């Protein structure tokens, strides 16, 4: 039956992310009854993850807070001194005014009382009208639903485990305000089965099924993303699920045959031919590649950009290599992903929906015309 599944107690993740890994690990079964681990990072707990993700930034933030607290304390002391001076001046003025205005006219008091009674009657009538308006508004109020965050289903590279990627996932949660799901391929250290191209595809299908069934996330809210070997797994999953919201490929290759450094793939037998599947995928696609990639040359990414029929402006990073885009060039990666997720994809899907509505209206009109012609005949 393949390799035995390693229990959670044996696994010792790196320092700083041990509780994150253990508390968010799930096990999913593929269609050929193999168990694979899955890590789930929801957006609603982003503050908890963030403290593990960027320790340098937190130190700067603490120093900045201390400086602000000192400034606030100084401002408070100045305000207290000003208040004391103002109070002393007010007391002097009151004493002077009381000494001058000892005698008060009775006529003024009577006029004040009559004015108060009139104002009370007016306020009662106004309050009654206001309550009627509020009741009418409460009946017409509408409940506003919160927008659910998007979910990124990430396919990792070769010679990599999902338990090495929690900081990467946490940064995605914090920077992009999305849910992140990491899954491991069959035959890798903490999963069952043998390593093969087919088993990689089955693992991705099982992870997508888990998001649909267990978490209740529709495909229209899921963005598939893959890095290196994971780009081939992501393209295969996108070709089988045309309802997916978007597709992101990092350091993608045409096929393993055309890669000079074969260690990017699992075995020499497995082809992972992206160039065949790319023209059949109509999902909006973003390609990201380093111009100095030493394993998969950038010409692979440029050729795939031509093969995919529905691509956006790619991100070619000048000095980036195969494995340093996420951490060294994050200042370029995250803004481009934000633009893709929150601007380009919504516009594309709005246009799609409007086109579908126009097509349906045309069909209804043609059906009516045909029925009228049949009635005349």
Biggest sheet: strands side by side, in what order? 1-2-4-3-5-6-7-8
Give the overall average pLDDT: 79
**Architecture of the domain at 18-51 and 146-355, according to CATH?**
3-Layer(aba) Sandwich
Count of DSSP helices? Answer: 11
Can you say what the CATH homologous superfamily of the domain at 18-51 and 146-355 is? Alpha/Beta hydrolase fold, catalytic domain
Distance between the first and last residues' Cα? 69 Å
Helical coverage, percent range: 40-55%
User: CATH class of the domain at 18-51 and 146-355, please?
Assistant: Alpha Beta
CATH topology of the domain at 18-51 and 146-355: Rossmann fold
Structural shape: elongated
Q: How would you portray this structure in words?
A:
Residues 83-97 have a biased composition (Basic and acidic residues). One of its GO terms (cellular component) is plasma membrane. Residues 63-82 have a biased composition (Basic residues). The chain is α/β, with parallel strands linked by helices. It has a domain at 18-51 and 146-355: 3-Layer(aba) Sandwich (Rossmann fold). It is built from 11 helices and 8 strands. It has helices at residues 18-23, 46-53, 55-100, 106-140, 166-176, 197-213, 229-240, 274-277, 298-307, 325-328, 330-376; strands at residues 25-29, 35-41, 151-155, 179-183, 222-227, 246-250, 285-290, 315-317. It has an 8-stranded mixed β-sheet with strand order 1-2-4-3-5-6-7-8, sandwiched between helices. Helix 6 (197-213) packs across helix 7 (229-240). The longest helix is centred in the C-terminal third of the chain and has 47 residues, at 330-376. The relative contact order is 0.10. Mean pLDDT is 79; it is low at 1-19, 47-54 and 140-144.
